[in-house]
Amino acid sequence: MHSLVVEIGNSSVRAARLVDGRLDLVTTSGRARSSAVTVRPDGSIVPGTTSGGVVIDDVARRLCAPVTVSPAAVASVGAAPSAESLAAALLRSVVDEAAEHGPRPTTLRLVHGGSWHPRSVAALRNAASGLGVAIETSPEPVGATTWALATGVAASDAPILVVSAGTEVIDAAVTIAGFGSTEVLGRAASIDVRHTPLDAPSALHRLVLERIGAAPDDDAVVEHADALAAACREALVRLSTGEEIAVALPLPFDGEVLVSPETLGGRMAPAVPDAFRRLRDAVESAHLAVSDVSAVVLTGSAAHSRSLVTAVSEVLDRPVVVPPRPEAAGVLGTALDPVRSPRTRRSMAARVADAGGSGDVATDSGPEGSTGSAAGRARRVITAAAVAVVVAALLATMFLARSSGDTPAVAEQGRSERTAGATG
Length: 424
Description:
- By secondary structure, this protein is α/β, with parallel strands linked by helices.
- It contains 16 helices and 16 strands.
- β8 (107-112), α4 (118-128) and β9 form a beta-alpha-beta unit.
- Residues 68-78, 357-387 and 404-424 have low confidence and may be disordered.
C-alpha cells in the first residue's frame, strides 16, 4: 500500500509520501505547486494559471465557505464551478504526477486546517472521491506536531501550541503527543488576515509597486492588474520555501524585483500583536494558560521570516521554535505517522531537512535545535566529539588500572577479599 499525503493551501499545494523507507516531498520541477486553477470557456478546469480563462486562486477558502463569483467570470466560463470540482482538479494532477515518479498511490491522506468545519472536511473528501483511491483525512496540527517531534524542536508528553501562519489564514491549536498518537486539546482558533497588513498577497503587491515607483491607481497598474497579480501569486509560491526570489514584472513594466521572506515578513511583523492575541483562544479552550505550553511551534510559509518569529514570540511571551521545512510540516509529519520508531522518524526527517528532499531548496529554519539548520548540524558534530572524549577517558582509565594488575572492578573485588581475609 502506498500513501500520498496532500494539503491544499492558500497559495500552494504540498504533497509528501513514504516509499520504501524514504520520505520525500512531491514537487513540480523541484518547486512547490501553485494551488491556483484556470477555468476555461468550455468549463474545463486546468491546474495552474493559463491564458484564455478565469484564474481562481482561493480553492481552500472556497472549500471552507461559499465564495461569490463575479457575474463577469460566470459569463466567461458558462457557469460557476463548485469548490469540490476545483479541488478535484488539483488533487488529480498531484496524484498523476506522483505516479509518474513512483508507484501510483492507493491511499490519499488529505491534510486540512485544524479549524476546518466538518462540512468542509466532507467537501474535501468528496473532491477526492473520483480518484479511485482510499481516502483519509487528518488535521494539519497533528502532522505538524509529529514533524516537530521528529526534527527535535519539541518534546512529547507536554502541551504544544502549533501555529500555522499561511498567506491568508492563521490557525492555532494545542496538541499533546503521547505513545503512538497525537491529540488536539480544546478547539482550534482561526484568523482570517485578508485585507489586513498580514495579508501576504496584498503586502507583496504593495512592495512590488513601491520598488518600481508606481501607485495602485496608475493607469498602467490598473490596465495590467491581472498580470501583476499573477506575477505576485507565482512569487508567493516560491517564497513559501524560504528562498529569495525575483518577481518577473510583466510588460509594460521592465525588469524584476528581488524579494526575500525576511523582507516581506518585516513589513508584516508590526501587525502581529493585534492579530495573534486572538490565538490565545485556542489555549484557553484547552483549559490552559499560554505559560503551560512547552513550546510554540510556528509552521507555514511565514515561519521563514525571523521578524515574524520574533514578533510572535513577543506577543505570546513564549519562545517560538520553527521546524525545518515549516511550509510543509503538516504533510511531512502526516506522511511519517505510520512509522512507529522515534529513531527511524528522526533519521528520515533529518534526511529531508538536510538535503531538501526531492530537489526542493533546503532551508535553514533558524531556531536553535532545528535539525536542518547549520547550527543543528554543528551541535551534532560537537555532541559526537564529546561522546568520543568520554569513551576515550573510560578506555584510558581501564588501561591504567589493567597496567597495575587489575581492572577497577577486579581491584575493588581483591581489596574486599583481602579485607575479609584479614578480618577472619
